[in-house]
Amino acid sequence: MIGQHPELFGVPEFNLFNFSRVTGLWQTASDQVGFKANRRHGLLRTLAEVLFAEQTDETIHAAAHWVAAREDWSTSQIFAAIRDLVHPLGIVDKSPTYTMESDRLYRIHEACPDARFIHLVRHPIKQCESVMKLNYGVFALFVNSIEYRAGRAYIEPQIAWHDMNVNIITFLEDVVPPERHMRIRGESIMEHPKELLGEICRWLGIRDDDEAIAEMMHPERSPFACFGPITALFGNDPNFLRKPQFRQHTPKLPPLDGPVSWRNDGKGLYPEVIQMAEMFGYQ
Length: 283
Description:
mainly alpha, Rossmann fold, 283 residues
């Protein structure tokens, strides 16, 4: 939604700063299929769009050649080149994988010391349920979100919810001046989008008029709000790609102290997860 602002350019999940060098996105032959191949779709779709004004198998192929010609570049150099290509628009990057390891967040700050950060939080139970619905919780496996009990291993997504937020909080408190980061609850955006989008615009120092806000209310107008060509299908949450339209509503949030649906032992959230959720304003 923020990326649809007339002064901004919202990109798919770049995943660039997961690595120090761009070759990290093309590590081994086994990366040609599956999750590791998907993680570069956002970069390729972006390059196809900004270099050739369309996303087709041919332009995705050409985008890959553009990267190959710069295989010795750092990810910071690649990002700077793309920022120049979309200038004077500002880039909005929302890659969830950046929060998996602190080093990735620090790379962003090193590459873009003038960046502003929005810490977007979500109710832990609703977030965990969403993770478990996507490919049977496979994302949790990639962040070592595993609990061992009674001699067996179980996917426990609340571990990832907690640890990723710890990474974000620690990073922001460590290196980012207070005026350059803000925290917003996703549910608040769902309920009061225009008010909060206006607040974000004023914080970013960009237009907050009715026309600009109206554009932000239509994320489906992004060139990346759909599945891409077969050679780069993703770059965003598949659920979003299937239904990218925004629907204003008041989310129904469960209590923090009840049992959770993904466990079969009747237990609920960890005490440290409840404590953090309460710090974010959940009850």
